[in-house]
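Supplementary Methods S3. Input chains for the assembly prediction are listed below.
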Amino acid sequence: MTGALATRTLRLPTPMPELTGSPTRVADVGNDLLALSAILDDAATFAAGAGRCPSWQGAAGEGYHRLVTRLRRRADALSAASRDIGGKVLGHAEVLAALHRRHRDLDHRFSALVGRAADELTGTLQVATGAAPAWREAPPGADLLASLVDDYEADRARWIADLREAEETVAQAFARAASEAGREPNDDVPSPVRPPHVPDPETPPGRVRDWWSALTPSLRRTLLTVSPELLGNLDGLPAAVRDRANRIRLARDVAELEAIPTTERTREEVLRLANALAALRALRLTARRAGTDPATGEPTPTQLYVYDPDSFDGDGRVAVAIGDLDHDRNLAVTVPGLGTDMGSAPDQAIKAVDLYEEANAHDPGTTTATMFWIGYDAPDGSADGTGDGDAAGVVDDGMAQDGGRRLADLVDGLTGMRHDDPHVTVVGHSYGSTTAADGAALAPPGRIDDLVLVGSPGAGDGHDDAGDLGVDHGHVFVGRNSADPVTELGGHGGWDLDSLGDGLDHLGVHVPHGLGTDPASDDFGATRFQAESPTREAAGLDGWRQDHLGYFDPGSDSLANMASIVDGDYDDVATAPGVHDPALPGPTTLPSALGHLVHDADRLGQDADDWLHGHPDWTDAADLVRTGKDALDGVVGGPHDPESDRAP
Amino acid sequence: MTSHAISSTLRLSLSEAATAARGWDDQHLFLAGGADSLAALDAVSDPASAIFTEGARAPAARFASRWRDEVRALGRRAESAADGVREAARAVVGADGDGGAACTRATTDLERLLRPALCPVLLEETR
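Predicted structure tokens for the full assembly:
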């Protein structure tokens, strides 16, 4: 019996070597290097821009320019190398984390194998001493143990080899970078390595919010400095983060583009610079007009929530908020219409500030933020003569529908970034009201609390009733100045609107038509509020623009009512009794307004005829004027004296 | 933009100079200060730190130390650029008469100025 014991061999596993190194701290090193790369980038950008001091001439100036040129190249090279080595170090952190996980697994296997070997040894000793039956002499577990130890030893050897390889790889990268740092730079800048992972723009806002919350402060800082363009317009990020990213990007755009000599800028660069400067003007204007918060004495916050100077073939996208989108109770988004692009940002900023001031004055006990949103490709409303410009977009709501989808995403992002449930109002003006209606219908339920449509040419295809717009019953509000001719374009009456639109188009005055039902019409089901022009009379071509554009004017009924809605104080909204205004003549003011238009068109036609009399080659232009005038005549039954429309 | 000249060998726009001097001061701060404030990178410079595994520790420490020196050197170049612009501006302003001399004295008092403009002339031009 004991002879068998003498032949037994028990193989014991080799313990795992100690593993030092911290994947988290290694990742911090990688992120520090990426942050350093951004600092170096800024230095290079400054050296290429405002730091050049190009007016400095003479011998000393030449020396200075050489210094700055060398400094820029050096900063560029070190920045690229920092980015390169930073990426490699981040990669090494992931490898090291995997090695740690494997180390833990192997350590557990080692402990288990030692325990199993102890059992085997105990069993064998019990057999040898007669304390256990003889069949334990050759327990089947002995072979299994040997096999498990072999597997473990092989995995342990592989792990050690992988650790050595990882160390060697990162050590070589460090050595190469340190060696290259000693060389004076040339223009061959290494290409950057992968940026840190940022969620795709299609990622649901809630998931983006959670992703950002889980990042370390160091990584957040790195991402903001290295990849602001990936963060600035990412729905779900806090507005304060987007604002910071967009301001970094804006500052870099201005510095880089202004550094390019004017004569060497491409068309894209010219457009991008113009858009960047418009955004800058809007930000400054907003901050100046918003002033200080009376409660805190601090400057009223402004937030650059969207900044994308390249989109829509150079029209660009921008949104600036007054107030704190992350924390204020009420949020209002204004959606402008025809002719808006990034260059309109300063004008839209004024409207948003006026609404902000009115809303906060109306209810100072509740915080309110307002934001103008130029975020879709609006028809440009200008006649470019090519026939293929944006102006064609006014004849239907295709661009509004596309804008509506974008608006729905925006609102989803605004609410998805917060943990509470803010009161959200969308205010659409003109063609923007059609976009707002489309956006409300497409937004996830509950995202938009109140929808306000002012100066609306129509609520969009398929929206014949306020109930089609996705907000709760009683929460669609319409402001319609009876003297605003654009509001006559919504389908609700017997006017020949296609002829009217065509006629105005021929005159070079592009207005929307064919955009659906007039939301102010009596049977649409919205709540109409007082929004009349203070003058309460139509004023012809010179005045109809004001009648259409005055809804945000300080002191107007319209602005006061919109502010009440934004505050959620519905009892303070002064309602209007249907689309017909008894203070003005006729079922609507269309004859009066168009009377002025026709009168003006007549005058234009006579002037044109006089001028064309001396220019017989311009017959096409003469035809154009006559066509426009005839179209208007067809709508209202021929030219007449607008004075005859006035109420006594 | 007004360009000032004190001789045929020196022409310089003071508004450009003010912008450049302040900007280079900033870059000096960012580069010199930034390199030191990156805590994780700083810790690697210590060969005894256990951030990296033993086989990578020494190369990482050498690299981090070298990298900090490089960035600091770049910061010193930025400081030189700021000083150069400031000197040139001072020469231009000093040649503009008594007001210029007063500005030069004010500039001397703010020798290490980081934010204020060089003098009223520059302030006026940068508004």
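Residues 1-9, 97-127 of chain B have pLDDT under 50 and may be disordered. Chain B is about 70% helix and 5% strand.
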